[in-house]
Amino acid sequence: MKCQTNINMHECLEIRSTAFRPFHINKSAPQEIERISTRNIDYEQFFYCFLQTNIPVILTAVTDRWECYKQWILRNETDVDKLNVAYLKERINNVVVPVADCDKQYHNSHEKQDMLFYDFLNYWEGTDTSGQGSKLYLKDWHLREMLPEYQFYETPQFFASDWLNEYLTDSNKDDYMFVYIGPKDTWTSFHADVFFSYSWSTNISGMKKWLLLPPGQELLLTDSLGNLPFEISEELLDMKNIVYYKVLQMAGEAIFVPSGWYHQVHNVQSSISVNHNWFNGCNIEHIWINLHDAAEKVTKEIDDCKDMENFDEHCQIMLNASYGMNFESFLKILTHISEKRIKALKSSVEVIHFDKYRLGVNHIQFDLNAINAVLTMMLSQKELLSKLQLLSEVENCILRIRDVSL
User: What digits encode the pLDDT tens for the residues 76-122?
Assistant: First the structure.
């Protein structure tokens, strides 16, 4: 179905089929991770070839029009690119930013501290000169949320169907859209992304080395207690005969990391990147399955307290604290997204993502079909949903979706 042009001239995100295919982890790992120019692939091809198959890809020619790509870096053809510190100080106030110390481990991540932005920039200039000292990494910085009027980048169309940030932005809550600024040799430890979501990361400058493992390969790294390592290396992965991919990501390239792909990232050169975590109709089943598994782990951990009053509610509180989401907050996202899609079909109200992209009718129906499938899966927990006073909301949402199904 072709999208009709509207007066706002938003770019249309459309797919051919409204049929929802249950999410699956692709069992056959690709021979290699492809590099594809954004000029040679469209949204629908990306949707079917990578989002639905859960396979990573590198996209090139991503940042050509981005303000940060043009202004944040002083590019030099014969020498290493330099951070444009004067411009950044002029454009961004001396705000407090989150900084990780890559020489210090804190639980399963690096120790974090708050730092003034200009102090970090001064530190960066020092590392460029000396290459010595501690490895401080400005990461998980909500710059877009902090300065919403500053359009320093554009979300690529391939990543625009983003339910997580759509809900959080509509609700005026913290988003999952970040800036990372790391001197050479800073790094992010071995992990899978929050909620087992998708992620995308676009390099503004520098080079990153990614080690990525297909889902399930990480289990070969667990110790006797089931714990995963904090840090991995190519030597370790080779020794254990683990399937993995090494990717060197250059400036101007975006990497798509699918659900459940564990990875570790090193800044081979001083690097700046823009990162999003997100999920949508292609992987929402996977989000629910992992949330359900996390809930079961919490329940087992405090099983000796199962006779306490409001045990199930207490488990959900602990789940939200440890996992960042529980059944209620997950359901809020689904109902919010579904109501916007239903309104679009019933009242011709457009669904616009990132002020730039408009969902086509088939895409809207696909989203509703995906939500309906996950809500139906949730009904297997009918007794628990009833105790949590969520059952009627799940059932009502299913009915509202089916009322507009094509």
Answer: 776 678 899 999 999 999 999 999 999 999 988 999 999 999 999 99
Structure tokens at 286: 């996977």
Dihedral of CA atoms 138, 139, 140, 143 in degrees, nearest 10, equals 40
Q: How far apart are CA 81 and CA 244, in angstroms?
A: 30
Measure the CA–CA gap between 385 and 328, rounded to whole angstroms: 9
Beta strands 57-60 and 35-37, pairing class: parallel
Residue in 219, 277, 227 with CA at minimum distance from that of residue 25: 219
Q: What's the burial of 355, exposed, middle or buried (CB within 10 Å: 0-12/13-18/19+)?
A: exposed
Q: Please tell me the distance from the alpha carbon of residue 155 to that of residue 392, in angstroms, as a whole number.
A: 36
CA distance 218 to 258: 14
Cα 399–chain centre separation: 30
As a whole number of angstroms, the longest Cα–Cα distance in the chain is 70
With tokens 């090494």, the residue in question is 246
List the strands of the sheet with 96-106, edge to edge: 35-37, 57-60, 254-257, 198-205, 271-278, 177-182, 136-141, 96-106, 109-116
Q: Which tens digits make up the pLDDT trace of 132-181?
A: 567 999 999 999 999 999 999 999 999 999 999 999 999 999 999 999 99
For residue 363, give both structure tokens. Answer: 């895409």
pTM above 0.90, yes or no: yes
Burial of 307 (0-12, 13-18, 19+ CB in 10 A): exposed
